[in-house]
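Quick one, T. Sequence first:
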Amino acid sequence: MSGINDLNVMDCECVVNWKYKEKIFSMPFSKIDQVMVDESRDLIFVLDKKKELPQRLSVISGSGEVLSTFPPPDGGMFYYMTINKKKEVLVVCIFSEKIDGWSDWHFSFNQKDNLLVRDSPAY
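Structure tokens:
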């Protein structure tokens, strides 16, 4: 179970608020598209800078540290986020050209190496 509680996205102000270990945190973003909690690792994922689709992925620790920000992968665009069976957040990216026969891919955050990694096709 996640230590992150009371996640609240304030669209008008483009602010994400949450509670972690009894402390309240708040962080501003630009044109928020989607926010999800990775319960298995106490991380918050934010897709923002939305034009047609979001242009940035931010990964934040429960204690408010920005672990990493990512632009969309080469040739791709961020689409949406989902959760796998391990309760980890996956980011679905769409590509104009197929990669290994697929246009849509799940990407996972490798916390150890601080990388966004292509994981599996998204159906």
